[in-house]
Design goal:
heterodimer, A: alpha/beta, Rossmann fold, Ubiquitin-like (UB roll), four-stranded antiparallel beta sheet, globular, B: globular
Amino acid sequence: MPAYEFPGGIYPPERKERSNQTPLRTAPLPDVVTLALAQHVGKAALPCVSVGDRVKTGTPVGSRDGMISAPVHASISGTVIEITDSAILVQSDGEDRWETLPPLDWKNAPHQALLERLDDSGLIGLGGAGFPTYIKAQVNEQHAIETLVVNAAECEPYITADDLTLRHYAADVIEGAQLLAHLCGATQILIGIEDNKPQAIQALEAALTQLPLSASVSLKVIETRYPSGGERQLIKKLLNLEVPSGGLPADIGVLCHNPGTLLAALHAVRDGQPLVQRVVTLTGDAIRQPGNYWVRIGTPVSALLEYVGINHDALHQVVVGGPMMGTPLASLEAPVTKTTNCLIAATQEELPPTPEEVPCIRCGACESVCPAQLLPQQLHWYARAENDTALETLNLFDCIECGACSFVCPSVIPLVQDYRASKQRIRHKRIETAKAEHAKHRFEFRQARLAREDAEKQARRKARLAQQRPAGNDASNVSAAPEADLRSLRIAQTAAKAAVRKAEKVLARTAAQDPHQHHDDLETQLATAQENLKAAEARLAEARAASEHKEAP
Amino acid sequence: MSMMHATQLGTAPPTAQVMRWVIAATLPGLAVMTYYFGLGVLSNVLIAALWAVAAEALILRLRHRPVWPTLNDASALLTGVLLGASLPPASPWWLIGVGVIAAVVVAKQLYGGLGHNPFNPAMVGYALLLVSFPTHMTLWAPPQALWSHTLGPQILGTLPTSSLDGLSGATPLDAFKHKGEAVLASEFWASSPLPEGTLEAWRHIALAWLAGGLVLIAKRLISWHIPVTMLGSMTLLAALFYASDTSHFGSPVFHLLTGATLFGAFFIATDPVSAATSRRGKLIYGAGIGVLVILIRNVGGYPDAVAFAVLLMNICVPLLDIYSVPRPGGKASSEHKATRKAS
């Protein structure tokens, strides 16, 4: 199969050799973990423990709230010492006793059990997006999925977490891919990896020889060029398919997963281990033992950096993620989260402060490297002018924020920063204009809830009455539920079920397309549909019970 | 709000570096020009550069903008050098000053400074001088020895011809343009209308500009799109004219190697600020300049036309920018066309 090309792209210094020279190691258990409630796309988890509770490694401490959300688990055993608005703190007892779920055999277990397991394990995309995996795994309800792509490109400089994961767990990652392919009905698995990871490639090749030919898993080594790890770019490169603008890979029958996610999925299913640890690249010139480490979620960054020998005098800043798309860390006390794939403790020399920007001269360097084929120079112009109409005409929302334009800009303009701010502004505007609509949805939810409570109350009352009276008298007293009524209730229940499914579909899609947006309104609409369904079920159950009573004698 | 780190890894030359490289790339052209036309070329460039820096400093002060960081970007210096190189050798100092002020102050800074000017500053200055001082602007001394120029008239501000009477001449384009309807091209050339070596001098100068331009392309400081389409459309259209009537129109080679063609193609039309911005837009922009140059030269009123052609295409840039938005990956072409129409 030939390699296809995506447009644009750059060749930044890779600096991966700093962290890929040593094998994967395990970081020591932290004394205290800070388990953030919002580590994923969507709504934050709700705390389900109280201060003073004893927890084990793997005990759920936060439960999923709404559909686009994920539970959070204790990553060490010990005692819950504090619950804040945004996090739960657990003090370690040093014993690391685990609470695991029963192992499942994914080849034979029912899909529903597997999906529930992914959900219960708090699994989200570990490549950085943080999208709940159980939702992604259900995408085949709306789209037929043919190909599962394992995104092992890892194109950002510095980061080697996927590289090391594959060197050590190639077979497990492939099995994880088979598990998720099995769930979404994909018939082929494609592993896309950049050619700067020869050892990982070797490990994958070795693992592939163990597989039966029928598994249809293939490895595809691609040229190292940033941002080949972008979902759209990788799909273009591997399959020569374009993901529709504003759409999802699922629209063209593709699903992308990060190797770390696949490994975690296998651990959750095969071993019953919830997501409590991940591989993190610790690198940068300000630390003495760079490398990749298994790190418990919630470990304070400061403790990690101390462990790998931080040189505080040389440290200029810590960046979370890669140097292209990552963000600087405000405080070293921040914890590692499920999406922390890399920490760069950088010296001033390696990541120097950006010089003062000068005016754009429209040289077009940005245009020639833009992988989305946008006109960054024009977007820049309109972003500064806050001309949102022009920005949307110039397809601002097709920008993947890879930073290639900022990288080549001779006027050192922080282009991506401007685009992010503009996107935020436009999203905010949309929310503002939809406020009345949202208020209406909240009102509808309230009505639906009251109606459901009413229906349930009614059903309970009828049930009580039926129990109190002897069955014989019942038939004569209770007005008979006509057949037609029962049928219309059944139809109402089916319609309510369809409405729930539709609301779920809309929410899942919107959240996947635009993870940075708030989806509260769609969650409300989903909750409304669910209330309606419950009410319809209660009414139907009541009518059924009544008609059975009638027929019984 | 996140901070973007991409620029920190950057290896791209900063804008000021780009400007300096472009100035450096003018050296072959300037050197050959000086060789053929004497020190008047260099003194032109020097005076224009001084004017440009002084005018930029002054206007920045008046606009309450930081003076030094902006001067340091060398864009004013580049404008001065390019305008100086376009003027007849040993032009009067005040003439250069008028042109440079029109370029730097009016065409650039009054529109908002670097990056905001819709018109090519050097060509605004040149066009202003051409229509305001036609006598001064069309007097090109014939090729002469390096030291033969007396720079006195330039400094006194008088016409160089007043003291060099009889030596005044025309450029090949000028002479050919005014050969008269009755004279056939073959007769014209047979009559050796130009002082000896003039045509050859212009050819060598053109090739020197080409060399500098190729350096810019090799170093990726300018993209190939504009020069290639401009020269391409010029060649094509000139060939059509030439094929229609060899006795009155210059050959494509004549058009390419005389006048400001190659200088314009690599150093003027490629000014990114006033050019179309997308690659597709640049192709149309360059082609448009080429077409206009040949049209003006062959059927218009001016012997050369690079300045006017560039300025006319500058006017079209906003339109080109709207209609040349590339199709982003994943957007169906029909959908893309619809949004473009809506805009």
